[in-house]
Amino acid sequence: MECQGPIHVLECILKLPYEKKMMTVALLWAWWSERNKTNHNESRLSTGEFIFLIKRSTDEWLRFFKPPTKSSTTSTPRWTCPPAEIIKINTDGAFLEETRDGGWGALARDSNGSIIFAADGRITHAYDALHAETIAIQHAIGLANQLGMGRIILETDSQILKQALLSPSLNQSRLGHLFLDIKYQLITEFIDYAVEFCPRACNKPAHSLAALGMRNRQSDQSLWLSVFPNFVTSLVTSDIAVS
Q: RNase H type-1 domain spans which residues (predicted)?
């Protein structure tokens, strides 16, 4: 069916499969945004960045608007301990679009669920939420290397970041140089590593640390190696109690 005029275009979009419908909306939104930049003489995205923006928006909207699945039993995902001799590090980033500032958090635990370190810090001049998530993993890797950890599992609640670190698909995006740097550090600095996705429900301590880092005005980074903040130990104890 040929689409003529805005009403017919809308009717055609509504007839598309759900995923293609969301991708079309993301394309139109990105196109409108680039048109506004042109009208205001602002710098525009490259072709690679434009495609990346459409894909990221589509993925985020699909997750946000995904209808809940019906199940006979309701279960909440929980954090799980890593195998013996491996350290699992949960990371998270917080981002405030109005100021382009944010925070990052990282929490490392061993196979018994014991905390190895907790850390947070401020972020300034971030591009977006994905940039904040990427900075969080960068700091986690730096601390793990500094503390002599040879085998690690990195957990993030960003599917896009996991994809970026496990494939070359986003190497040409605006954050591509950061993804490549992280991959290089993982390969050269660690005996063994993995990057895994975890739901937000499994990432509460790191999420709370990132929120604390965003509010931190005294220093760029805080690191705890023995005595940990009460809210961290409380969330960790809750994780272990139900695992």
A: 90-211
Starting from the edge strand earliest in sequence, which strands make up the sheet with 115-123, in order?
192-197, 151-156, 87-96, 101-109, 115-123, 221-224
Residue with tokens 């040409």: 172
Does the domain at residues 87-242 carry the CATH identifier 3.40.50.150? no
Name the pTM for this structure: 0.71
User: Cα angle vertex 241, ends 235, 242, to 5°?
Assistant: 100
Measured at the CA of 17, the angle between CA 30 and CA 173, to 5 degrees, comes to 35
Classify strands 221-224 and 192-197 as parallel, antiparallel or unpaired. Answer: unpaired
The pLDDT, as a whole number, for residue 75 is 66
Greatest Cα pair distance in the chain: 67
Which residues in 199-231 are b (16+ Cβ under 10 Å) and which e? eeebbbbbbbbbbbbbeeeeeeebeeeeebbee
List, by residue range, all CATH 3.30.420.10 domains of the chain.
87-242
